[in-house]
Amino acid sequence: MANKYVRAFFLLIMIMVALGSVFGWLKYKEDKNFMNELLLHKPISKKDIKDTRAGKVIYKSMGSGMAKAEHVEIDINEEEMNKLISWFNSVPVNSVHEVGSVEGSIIAGIVLDMRSGSEIRIQYNSNNIYVTRNDIKGKGIYIKYIIEHEYIRKFFEDLTKEYYFGKDKVS
Question: Cα separation of 94 and 41, whole Å?
């Protein structure tokens, strides 16, 4: 009789260990995804920036139904750059989403050449703010993610006013 209880107890322990392993693995996978998102968006230090380039695209009519996309360099003053870096560094983890590629046409962007030789691009396509950088996993490995931040979006919206044949958006 005691042998029967030992078997039942042993079986119960095995089931608990199996369930614990499954739940542990699921929790590990969830935590790993969270950590990957957390590690994607690393803050930028102004002193680590060697050079900054910025530009936008302006679509112009050439008549007879022809259009021209003109790439225009933009000067961003130090105050704007400081604000942009501050906003960038304040993006919360839950507003960072890794993507495989940039979708749509980029209409404005800022490239930060870092002293380390790496590069960080902050780009806007009238829908999303994309970050492409190679300072997280190594210079040859670019990661891409979308950030959601009201002030950075407003910055790019103001920068790209009337970019599309004098309109703010493609109809």
Answer: 11
Question: Biggest alpha carbon distance in the chain?
Answer: 96
Can you give the pTM of this predicted structure? 0.73
* Structural element, H or E, at residue 58: strand 49-63
**Rounded to an integer, what distance in angstroms lies between the CA atom of residue 87 and that of residue 60?**
32
Distances from the Cα of 143 to the Cα of 22, 118, 165, angstroms: 31, 12, 33
Closest by alpha carbon to 58, among 103, 127, 108, 102?
Answer: 108
The per-residue DSSP string of 14-57 comes to: HHHHHHHHHHHHHHHHHHHHHHHHHHHS----GGGEEEEEEEEE
pLDDT per residue as tens, the chain (171 positions): 567 777 777 777 888 777 777 776 666 655 555 555 457 788 999 999 999 999 998 888 777 777 788 889 999 999 999 999 999 999 998 899 989 898 888 999 999 999 999 999 999 998 999 999 988 876 678 899 999 999 999 999 988 887 666 665 554
**Bridge partners, 68 (sequence order):** 60
Backbone angles phi, psi at 45, to 5 degrees: -105, 130
